[in-house]
Amino acid sequence: MDLARQFGTPTFVYDAAKIVERLNDLRHFDVVRYAQKAASNLAILDLLRRHGALVDAVSAHEIRRALAAGYPAQGDPPPVVYTADIFDADSLGLVVRENVHVNCGSPDMIDQYGSVAPGRAITLRINPGFGHGHSRKTNTGGDCSKHGIWHEQLHDCLVTAEHYGLSVTGVHVHIGSGTDLEHLSQVCGALEKAAVEVGRNVQSISVGGGLPVPYREGQSYVDLDAYFRRCDAVRKRLEARFGHPVRLEIEPGRYLVAESGFLISEIRAVKKQGGNTFYLVDAGFNNLARPILYGAYHPIAIAPADGHANRPEIEAIVGGPLCESGDIFTQDEGGFVAPRRLPLAAVGDYLVIECAGAYGFVMGSNYNSKPLAAEVLVRNGQPHLVRQRQSFDDLVRGESIPPA
């Protein structure tokens, strides 16, 4: 309630200690490379940099975010890696000018990069022919996925790289977001096969991200020790084959930030629609799109404005303010409304959507001309406003009306 009163609603709040805790879970890996697309506020990037994480970028402006947060453009291992399936003109010019390491996700990227930056080192993102994720929309492998270089085209890509004098120094496989240990372990085999085909120039292997986070009761984490052992076994076999050390990288996004984030909203209407009760809040899918995109489940809590927490529970549907029927936070994939047992609430109470740190603010939009939410980082018990709420002037900046 104090945060809502100080910063207004809707507001994203992130717990710095939880982010650092999750980063420390992965210390067995040589490099933890944060996939900043999950949550790219400069304060979060700075926090992770200060605690030893490197960073992945998927656009020119994500590269610029990393640089603005204090990451150097170059180093060994590369502090910033650009991973994508295409170059636009901006990103190609930027990686060449700053000499940012490139992880190529398509054969055309090798041609385009090699033609303007011959002789540099690259890594290749491989689509191993299979994928898995918590939703079809988060599956990044297999022949229905646009991501990565198809595994059967690897030889041709190596020939192209050699033509430009590009040294392929690593391979990367990422099959999807929110997958399980069985499918993550299959990544190890695909990585090993690709690395062997690339040969002794391989200096690093990346198992990508995809580590699941338990959003529901009964869900669990992946056994990280078991996963590391399988990854490390591949690394050791490659080191024995190549006769030199091979760096083992992991590229988490959701795992580092999801549980740290909370979206605080205020209940502005309680409606009876036939047999259903709706809690309508001032946050919508313009703030958190995962439920409408994937039918994603998020834990929800009520913070009563009067401080009296012992209230009976009812079945309630939580919706937002947008002029859109799909603006419902309690729905399953396919748009099916799924009421939730929540405490009895009234206008003025606060409703908190939990595990909202990953793919929350970063997927925000101005639909219905709604401003982007504020962001707050809580560090050492103190809240810091790390992004101001968007104003109307921010909203229309860059727009113009042509002369009559």
Percent of residues in beta strands: 15-25%
Total strands: 20
Radius of gyration: 23 Å
Mean pLDDT over the full residue set:
94
Sheet having the most strands:
9 strands, mixed
Low-confidence stretches: none
- Give the CA-based shape: globular
| Helix fraction bin | 25-40%
Distance between the termini: 49 Å
Structural class estimated from helices and strands: alpha/beta
* Number of continuous helical runs: 12
Oligomer: single chain
What does this structure look like?
- It is a single chain.
- The chain is α/β, with parallel strands linked by helices.
- It has 12 helices and 20 strands.
- The strands form 3 sheets. Strands 1, 11, 12, 13, 14, 17, 18, 19 and 20 form a 9-stranded mixed sheet that branches. Strands 2-3-4-5-6-8-9-10 form an 8-stranded parallel β-barrel, surrounded by 6 helices. Strands 15-16 form a two-stranded antiparallel sheet.
- Helix 6 links the parallel strand 5 and strand 6.
- Helix 6 packs parallel to helix 7 and helix 8 packs parallel to helix 9.
